[in-house]
Write a structure and sequence with these properties.
homodimer, 344 residues, alpha/beta, 434 Repressor (Amino-terminal Domain), Rossmann fold, 3 domains, six-stranded parallel sheet, six-stranded mixed sheet, DNA-binding, LacI family transcriptional regulator (chains A, B), transcription regulation (chains A, B)
Chain lengths: 344, 344
Amino acid sequence: MNSGGPPTLRDVAHEAGVSSAIASRVLNADPHVRVREETRQRIQDAAQSLGYVPHSLARSLRGARAGAIGLVMHGLDSPINVDVLAGAHARCAQSGYVTLLAEAEDLAEDDSRLRAFLARGRLDGVILHSGYGHDDRLLDAISRSVPAVLVNADDDREAPTVRVDDAAATTLAVSHLLELGHREITFIAGPHGSQTSDRREQGYRSALDRADLGDRTDVVHADWSADSGMQAVQEILRRPSLPTGLIVANAVTAAGVLSALRDAAVQVPDSISVITIHDSWFLPHLSVALTAVRLPLQALGAAAATLLIDTIDGRDAAQDAFITDPGPELVLRKSTGSPPARRA
Amino acid sequence: MNSGGPPTLRDVAHEAGVSSAIASRVLNADPHVRVREETRQRIQDAAQSLGYVPHSLARSLRGARAGAIGLVMHGLDSPINVDVLAGAHARCAQSGYVTLLAEAEDLAEDDSRLRAFLARGRLDGVILHSGYGHDDRLLDAISRSVPAVLVNADDDREAPTVRVDDAAATTLAVSHLLELGHREITFIAGPHGSQTSDRREQGYRSALDRADLGDRTDVVHADWSADSGMQAVQEILRRPSLPTGLIVANAVTAAGVLSALRDAAVQVPDSISVITIHDSWFLPHLSVALTAVRLPLQALGAAAATLLIDTIDGRDAAQDAFITDPGPELVLRKSTGSPPARRA
DNA sequence: TTGTAAGCGTTATCAA
DNA sequence: TTGATAACGCTTACAA
């Protein structure tokens, strides 16, 4: 063997009595090469018996592929975002890419982390799970170095974007409440500056407009967290009159909304109906099993990965994409019902 | 510039009118080298103006460090496991390592994914978040290739292991119920074969033993999922008499437990008290706000990373470790209380 | 104080 | 059908 370390291609070639050149071609099953069957055997036996493992760095250094994709996520404390991550990760793994994980905040705040992450040759591309719009600098740095695909950003950005139909989701939620007879529907949005939240708000507004209820729109901002959901409810409860329906822009926030309602002894759905965007495992287990509009989050992550991989592999692609299959879907549970009878 | 691609060290050296050797030393701040201040400036200016980014692959190929750590996790659909991931990831990032993410099941099932992940030179070490004991083959393959640290495995394994004090956690839960006056306490365990669950069960048994209640032990198995928690409750409800206290080995399972109890109209905590291992954001929002024993999961992940990094960097380390700071901590909410008065 | 040159493990281009 | 050999971009003795 060589000098102690793990066996190299040369060790294999030497063992098989051939040059490293054919060893390389044989082991990579290069279709353009015709070797004697017997030689091929010898090489493969040698590789086998030496326990040869190709050195991925050396390979990528020579070729141009790292075989790795960067997943820049945010808010991994929310199961919603983890779903997107899982979808993207699975699709990358399927296609033979390993994935590097990073948090958007970390990279944006700490230049040395950003550099370590984007170090040349390490990544073939990056999926940036954004949505705040505060990350132009981050996107700039990334796309200067490798192809990037955005998830959930607006489409005025400098990279292709993949999205679910946020507006359709809230529209569906509004329709559901409208059909039940609600006319006073408040939307509990995400944080100011979130493009995702803005799109959902737009769906809410236009659905009310279409029902000639455009003057009844009412939006309260939260910040995606459960606590902020509780605060939003407390704010609403301080008003002289309550809405009969609540649409919450995010399932985690909705968990807080339900708790605050319980704390205030407001009956759901008898006094007020609640519906949220995003389905997740915990919704059936909240204080009232929560009705939701399911959005295909794993599919979203997977679509972003597909788009990126197509780009990397030189297939055209690189268009913005809407995930419409499956589309937003109503998951009925126990938190919505008819509005309370009107007090004259 | 060179041939179109991004600038290399040689380009920088050329631009600065020096050799690539000093360029390298200057840019890496090699302490053993004394360069004229003016030269150092010229090199750094050149690097700056060319937008030079070191090629991490070439660097690792030459040196021996990849600057990357593999995080092999399982069950990312549970926030509990995501907490461990977050802790490990943060600690790695802090120390300048990027992280490669993989799912244990994927690697165990698909050899080509395992090979891609462990490809030589890509990783400096791996954290394996295990707990099932089914993964000996996986651990074998990994530790044959790089240093590994286990999370939550038993300590008879072939790699150092980092753990929280599972037994102490259930002991604390038992004590809490005992103090409230409970004597019939059922433990809803994780799946058969889970070492984590076994350790928790042991803490439960020995705590009851110490209270001379060793003959009252009662264990029902679930599988970490919320659904299995519901099933466990249904099984218990079929019995002629009910326990007064339930200790659930996992917070996600506990969510299902509470829902099943609600569905069966069993009052918590009036008819039955419930306490779970693991605190998480959703516990306050369940049908009854759930009392829990908090375990330091992020610290667990971080400790695993620290241990691994120490090993990689050649500091001694590599001992099994218990995370005892902070230790298991009782988080009181509304799901535990005195047992119902005994029917004579 | 700076430059030369030899690798690190592959792959690709020739030539044999 | 196979073998030399030159890159890929960087680090590091060693030499000047």
